[in-house]
Amino acid sequence: MNVSRAQQHLKPPPSPDTLRGRFPETGPAARTTIYRSHAAGLGAWWFSSNGGGRFDLTGSEGTCYTAETELITLLEAWSGIYVIPRPELVKRDISTVIVRRDLRLADATSNRAIQFGLTSEMFTTTDDPLTQQWAKALHEAGFDDIRYLARHDLKHVDACIAVFAASGDQTGTDEEPSDFAVLGTENLLDRPDLWEALEEEAGIVVLDIPRSF
């Protein structure tokens, strides 16, 4: 018996009760370093609930998109773009971040997730309402985040991590500490090593805009 290859195989998730205690999970442990690319000048730990992201929760809960390497954050941020005007660099920061507590991480990169109906389309489909159903079900099953593969990284060695928390800016500060801390933030204009890595790894180039006279 065969299933047509011409159709999407990713289905809606099973119930949270089915996923709870059975869906594969992994770290990261507290204080594992991860990375976040975000608009310059804004908090690194922004949890989106507007439905615009692959795993967005809704209402009072949101999702913050991070990655295990700096390069992956940029590949995802500039998805499908192969020439980046240099002035765009100043508009983005890259932050090194940590979570100060242990997280229950749903491991969507594990083959043990296949039995629940998961396929690699979870990482590539443009059907965001479907992947958001998965995020909701996994969150209700007790998971704090999802480890998944980046759509625009073909090496599949390191991964992305979508973290769940109250929606909005949860970035911790000295005055108002939270579980979500920032170890450091740099503007991309000050990181030529990352521009070089983008070109070497993916052929994505940063170019100056010619002056008009």
Automatic annotation (TrEMBL):
This is RES family NAD+ phosphorylase. Residues 1-26 are annotated as: Disordered. InterPro entries: RES_dom. Residues 35-170 form the RES domain. It comes from the Bacteria.
